[in-house]
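The step that takes the researchers longest sounds almost clerical: writing a folded protein down as plain text. Below is the pair of lines this work produces for a single protein:

——
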Amino acid sequence: MMFKPHWIMLAKPLLIAFAGVVMLRIFREGLQDYSRFIYDAFLRAGLGYENISAALAAVQLGIVALIFWPLIKARAVRATWRFELCDEQIVWRHGVFNRYVEEIEIAEIVGVNLFESITGRIFGFSTVLIDTRGRDTLVMPMIGGGRTFANQALEAKRRLRRTVGNFPA
């Protein structure tokens, strides 16, 4: 069964982008109020009028990049992270430019822990922590349907234990 990060991970970057657009709007309006001061400062520095528009455009471009980078990053993470629960293993595929694949055998699982905030309970996402013998903990953040994932992982371990016999826990 395939799981992926919840859509809620886009909420914070969207709020940052909205606040940034408001700040950019204020910045542009403020430029009109302080344009005489900015022009005088450029002339005193000996930079001339032709450099003013390039500098202000660079500042605005930097603000736009800072505004939208968290949103782009969160969207890329949501698009590329996949958690797959098979009968014998859990596979976590992630990475935008470099692809990482982490696999854990169901037999290696010692425990499955679940963290759900109040927001997570309302919107249906949680962070799943899988404790294994060979590795301390695999943390899978903000999974949509994390409770289902944790229950199915434990059920897969029980099925494997019944089928194979008693293996070390």
